[in-house]
Design goal:
Elements: E1 5-8, H1 13-17, H2 20-33, E2 38-41, E3 55-59, E4 62-66, H3 74-80, E5 91-93, H4 99-102, H5 120-125, H6 130-137, H7 140-150, H8 162-170, E6 178-183, H9 192-199, H10 201-215, E7 219-224, H11 229-244, E8 260-265, H12 275-282, E9 306-310, H13 311-323, H14 325-329, E10 332-333, E11 336-337, E12 339-346, E13 352-357, H15 362-369, E14 379-384, E15 391-393, H16 403-408, E16 417-422, H17 427-441, H18 447-465, H19 471-488, H20 492-496, H21 498-507
Parallel strand pairs: 1-2, 6-7, 6-9, 7-8, 12-16
Antiparallel strand pairs: 1-3, 3-4, 4-5, 10-11, 12-13, 14-15, 14-16
Helix pairs in contact: 6-10, 6-13, 7-8, 7-10, 9-10, 9-11, 10-13, 17-18, 17-21, 18-19
This protein binds flavin mononucleotide and iron/sulfur cluster.
Length: about 525
């Protein structure tokens, strides 16, 4: 047989759902039948989901991509010369020269789809562990200062400055501290946490290790969404490799610093993504929100000071340490510094992961990257920031995707999920859905959320039915209910439900008046 040709087929959950395993098997079997030897690498996805399964072949001229490839295409592809990177209708050439990818600014997701997520040497060869090496030469306070100076804010939703959170934990004069990674990724239409864990798990592990070094923690937990079995496997493999190579465990890289990480599977409720609920669940109890104060940074997991950060936040930390605070700070606008992995989903032609500096407009995302709706009908609205995010009408698609600009329009960026709807959407149904979601997912601890959401569903039903001429009174009551939920709820689940409801009423009122 000839020398093996390296072929990349993603083992990312998104690609798998589109048949990537069948494609991989067909390539191996087909190549072997033709007497060709293949070195199959299961990488993560590059995030061009409309091209998945995306197969890449390593040729002397570089990686050549084909996609979307079905198992049924493989025989014809091999006949056409897939393993030499030959022409075919599905050939996309060098994927990095495609505008969709070339125009992105990938810092956190720089290695996605490029490296083998199970191979620590590949990670190191692509700049991995430079951040930790730097951190090991610095005093904890200096690491925290770098994170503060970079302007990094939490990517899980609340956008709280990461440096301030770390400083609070560092300042606690106790021996036992924890790093808890929030990998619950509960927002609809979001997948960047999953992509990172499946496609570049060492980045998260390195970020957690740097966080531990910075605040003086020796134990870390990844609270992983139970629906993410592929991420669990990728992380477990990466954790063992990091331990075997001295990047985790006792006396990391002979520095005298020790830290290890365990995975805990989530309980499958949206509220378990809220940080205090997550800590309850991590401790083995039902996921219910804790009253704050005390903050988790002061009294968190098992009553000890705990850094709770999102996957994207932690996976960004190595970039800051490796390239410097100023490098990171130089991306973005206003108080939104760095880049944000935007997840484009819903009724859109080219959905996927777009990592750009903060400030890209909704228009640019939906049309330049997304190519408009998948149905070909006019785009009517986007929902940004998960099930509790506001709906923006097309007239506001000039809004830059950054925290303050969205907040000025009574919207939020959340975890960066953007879901597209065409003109067949019924916004009264979407408002009702938000309230129903809140009712189903409420932890039940406070009345505005537990009772308010159920009464809200009834109100929307009455408004739409226009029963008994009570529409005006019911609209006023719904407004008052939103005020109560916003101001009186103990956490963001009840507190943010008014965002989709109010934005639907404000921008799409006619849908309620049928
Ligand atoms: C109802 C609710 C659900 C949440 N779900 C998640 C989640 O799935 N993942 C996440 O990282 N943060 C989630 N958050 C935000 C967390 O409470 C917390 O702010 C975050 O994990 C802190 O990390 P960061 O500073 O790195 O963003 C949620 C918040 C609320 C109110
Ligand atoms: S707002 Fe809802 S989810 Fe949050 S604490 Fe209150 S009842 Fe629980």
């Amino acid at each position: 047989m000839n020398a093996p040709v390296t072929v990349y087929v993603p083992a990312d959950a998104g690609a798998l759902s589109l048949g990537a395993d069948r494609v991989a098997s067909a390539i191996v079997a087909g190549a072997s039948a033709r007497g060709q030897n293949v070195n199959l690498v299961r990488n993560g996805s590059r995030g061009l989901y409309w091209l998945e399964p995306l197969v890449e072949v390593v040729t002397p001229a570089g990686r050549v991509a084909y996609g979307p490839v079905n198992a049924g295409d493989v025989t014809a592809l091999l006949e056409a010369g897939l393993l030499e990177g030959a022409p075919h209708a599905l050939r996309r050439g060098d994927i990095e020269s495609l505008d969709w990818l070339k125009s992105q600014q990938r810092l956190t997701g720089a290695r996605l789809g490029i490296v083998n997520p199970a191979d620590i040497d590949d990670y190191i060869a692509h700049g991995g562990y430079i951040g930790l090496s730097t951190a090991l030469t610095l005093a904890p306070a200096a690491i925290v200062k770098m994170i503060t100076d970079s302007g990094l804010r939490g990517r899980g939703g609340a956008a709280f400055p990461t440096g301030i959170k770390w400083q609070t934990v560092l300042d606690q004069p106790v021996a036992q501290k924890y790093i808890a990674c929030n990998a619950d990724e509960g927002d609809s239409g979001t997948f960047s946490d999953r992509m990172l864990m499946e496609g570049d798990p060492f980045a998260l592990i390195e970020g957690m290790t740097i966080a531990a070094r910075a605040v003086g923690a020796n134990r870390g937990y990844i609270y992983l969404r139970v629906e993410y079995p592929h991420a669990a496997r990728a992380l477990a493999k990466a954790l063992s490799a990091a331990r075997a190579r001295g990047y985790l465990g006792e006396n990391i890289r002979e520095s005298g610093f020790s830290f290890d990480i365990s995975i805990r599977l989530g309980a499958g409720a949206y509220i378990c993504g809220e940080e205090t609920s997550m800590l309850e669940s991590l401790e083995g109890r039902r996921g219910e929100v804790r009253v704050r104060p005390p903050l988790p940074a002061i009294k968190g997991l098992f009553g000890q000071p705990t850094v709770v950060n999102n996957v994207v936040t932690l996976a960004t930390v190595p970039v800051v340490l490796a390239k410097g605070a100023q490098f990171y700070q130089d991306f973005g606008v206003g108080r939104s510094r760095g880049t944000i992995p935007l997840q484009l989903a819903g009724n859109v032609k080219r959905g996927g992961l777009v990592e750009r500096a903060f400030g890209l407009t909704v228009n640019q995302l939906v049309y330049d990257y997304g190519g408009g709706s998948a149905s070909g009908r006019p785009v009517r609205a986007v929902q940004i920031g998960g099930p509790l995010g506001a709906y923006l009408p097309e007239s506001q698609f000039d809004t830059p995707l950054e925290y303050e600009a969205l907040s000025a329009r009574s919207a939020l960026l959340g975890h960066g999920g953007v879901v597209v709807f065409d003109d067949s959407v019924d916004m009264a149904k979407m408002a009702r859905y938000a309230l129903e979601f809140c009712a189903v997912e409420s932890c039940g601890k406070c009345t505005p959320c537990r009772i308010g959401s159920t009464r809200g569903v009834e109100l929307v039903d009455r408004i739409v039915a226009g029963a008994n001429g009570s529409r005006a009174a019911d609209l006023a009551l719904l407004d008052e209910l939103c005020d109560t939920m916003f101001n009186g709820s103990l956490c963001g689940l009840g507190g943010m439900t008014p965002f989709p409801v109010r934005s639907a009423l404000k921008h799409f009122r006619n849908d309620f008046m049928k």
